[in-house]
Design brief:
GO terms for molecular function: sequence-specific DNA binding. It comes from Elysia marginata. This protein is α+β, with helices and mostly antiparallel strands and 408 residues long. The protein is built from 12 helices and 12 strands. The chain folds into 3 domains: 83 residues, no CATH class; 102 residues, no CATH class; 185 residues, no CATH class.
Length: 408
């Protein structure tokens, strides 16, 4: 062991002289370290074999506290991942399959309802009662407003004014109660006085500040979001072809999750993940919280968000989901196949797991040309199509053929 200790000291001194932390990249500093120990006993051979470059070596300690190699070396995680998702690419189309869809419209759509009644299905008595409880009993009393009272009618009138202000906007809130013809709104002024509206605006609350969820940057509105999501799913007019994408919420005040993305219709605001249907209904909303969001780092953010939203849909129907290239991946399509859901989406060429589509040759081909491959093992087809640029799509349900021409 003396010879071994001397050899380790020499190596450590050489490493310290040649390298420092500033010479390594961030990825190298965060990567797993490999411990390679070679034991010698005089003229005897090495007792511990040096692990391969692609294999991790686990070390334990003996009775003296010295590190010794474990009898079971850890397996190569990277090689296991590749083996588990081995692809069998063939130049053939995905076999055509039909999805049974016999879901009847929900009962609340089988009879005529007014827009007000439809709105109250989502923003009903339970939601208003929650707001009154958080506003009066918790927030107003804690701020010294012991005499403050409100009821269902007044809270509904308050939110009616807020909705009107959303599409009939003025520079300042108080202008709705002014007498000038160009800004006065009689519907608002007759519903509630200006001072009463501002008092409600001061005390209105949807969460208990003493019971906020630690680490949740939207904790002050999360209870309301949960109540609404519960009703969005309950009154979901089930459709076979929902899509998953991001949505922007305009917001101009101070918040750590506010973003400015040029080129978007709503440049400044917060982002949320949403399931949307062709009818415009959103069965579930999930606020985006950047690094604080819990997701499976093995699969990435897009995969985790998509699977999480799909799990919120009502069980039973076989959905056919659509994504853009932020979400689509071959492992996502396989995971949805296991749950009985079909999916189609654009996919980045670097996420096709070495699918042998000739992108260079396709780029030089005439417009409308395609290259496609079918993974027999997982039932996934990847198709590269030459449009203005190369568009790559993947699906576990839709095949390449039949094809037809479509005018723009």
């Amino acid at each position: 062991m003396g010879a071994l200790q001397k050899e380790e000291d020499d190596v450590n001194e050489g490493i310290q002289e040649s390298l420092s932390a500033s010479d390594l990249s961030g990825r190298q500093l965060r990567s797993r370290a490999h411990c390679r120990v070679k034991y010698t006993d005089g003229s005897k051979e090495t007792r511990g074999d040096e692990p391969d470059d692609d294999q991790d070596s686990e070390c334990s300690s003996d009775d003296r506290g010295n590190e010794v190699p474990s009898t079971t070396a850890s397996t190569n995680v990277r090689k296991q991942t590749i083996t588990a998702h081995a692809r069998q690419w063939r130049k053939e189309d995905l076999p055509a399959t039909l999805i049974d869809w016999d879901t009847a419209p929900p009962l609340f759509l089988q009879k005529h309802v007014t827009p007000t009644k439809c709105f109250e299905r989502f923003f009903g008595d339970t939601v208003v009662e929650h707001i009154i409880r958080e506003t009066i009993k918790i927030y107003a009393n804690g701020k010294g407003g012991h005499s403050f009272k409100t009821d269902f009618v007044e809270v509904r009138a308050f939110f009616s004014i807020v909705l009107v202000c959303g599409y009939n906007s003025l520079p300042r809130r108080r202008m709705y109660w002014e007498q000038q013809d160009d800004c006065h709104n009689s519907a608002i002024s007759k519903t509630m006085s200006r001072n009463r509206f501002e008092l409600l605006m001061r005390y209105i609350h949807v969460a208990d500040n003493n019971k906020l969820i630690a680490g949740d940057k939207f904790a002050k509105i999360k209870p309301l979001y949960n109540l609404l999501n519960e009703r969005f799913v309950r009154f979901f007019p089930v459709q076979q072809h929902p899509s998953i994408d991001e949505s922007r919420i305009p917001y101009y005040d101070k918040h750590s999750l506010k973003q400015c993305i040029r080129g978007k219709v709503i440049r400044i605001g917060c982002k949320q993940w949403v399931i949307a249907t062709p009818l415009g209904h959103a069965p579930y909303l999930d606020l985006y919280q950047r690094a604080s969001a819990a997701y499976d780092r093995k699969f990435g953010l897009g995969h985790s968000v998509a699977m999480g939203l799909v799990n919120q849909l009502p069980n039973g129907p076989h959905y056919h989901l659509y994504f853009d290239n932020f979400f689509t991946g071959l492992r996502l399509l396989k995971g949805l196949s296991d749950t009985g859901s079909a999916a189609t989406g654009t996919v980045g060429s670097n996420r096709t797991e070495k699918c042998p589509t000739d992108l260079i040759g396709l780029k030089n081909a005439k417009r409308g040309s395609i290259h496609y491959r079918h993974d027999r093992h997982h039932g996934i087809v990847v198709c590269a199509w030459n449009d203005n640029s190369i568009v790559t799509l993947a699906s576990n349900q839709d095949g390449v053929f039949p094809m037809a021409k479509e005018s723009r």
